[in-house]
Amino acid sequence: MQKKWRSQLDIQSMVWPGLIFLFVFSYIPMYGIVISFQDYDLFAGVFDSPWVGFKHFQEFFNDPNFGQVIQNTLAINLLGLLIGFPAPILFALLLNEIASMRFKRFIQTVSYLPHFVSWVVFGGLIINVLSPANGIINAILVQVGVLAEPVNFMGNADYFWYILVLGEMLKGLGWGAIIYIAAIAGVDPEMYEAATIDGANRFQKIWHITLPSIMGTIVIMLIFAISALLNTGFEQILVLQNPLNLETSETIDTYVYKLGLRNMRYSYSTAVGLTKSVIALFLLLSANYVSKKISGKGLF
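^ thats the sequence. predicted structure below, dont judge the formating
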């Protein structure tokens, strides 16, 4: 055993720094979840704060806004799963069909750029584009006769879910497609050549070769997406949120920030975070189990 361990020392030396980093910054701080079962006092500390059991969990589930917050969180994520998840896959498939490498690189570069723009800037662009006063969307819709007069999209709660999901899709389209482009690059070219000889067109090659070849990657990314159903993101919602659309824009993350962290209710915010983590773990295990039963592929 020791001989085998020593023979792999050079390989293990590349792994251990990552494991140590993960242990120090991810596992050691986990002791802090104990404050979700306490009335945490900043000055008394973790060990001297009074123990209250499941008080903060019950408080969250009995909160009058609980139903609305959960509805908004799930609606945004399910809409994002329906619209935002297939978009990078479709984009990667279309990008793979471009014959000109120069044009292909140009499209990739342009599509990656929004990912590196902060949500403060990108959210400001969305607000300005949709502005009823000088927004280009309203100007176009009024000009072509779709609207009789400009509409305050950001002030109408009915539009918020779609604006947020489409904004996230546009911002992350190119970056999200990278992993699928990499998976497509690993497909054996001889399979396409054989399909061409058999008379297959481009769509048939995509359907019968490309998609089945990257299905493992798609399944893994879908499992991750399902496990994150309660994570709507914080920055983008806070940037686009205003009092007029609060009815549909208030999610778990923003609600906990306002109620828990602004008011220094650290135990309450930790309890909600722990609840989210437990549900996310359950969703991850469930999605992985169903995936393995249906497709034979999964994370583990």
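The chain has a mean pLDDT of 89.
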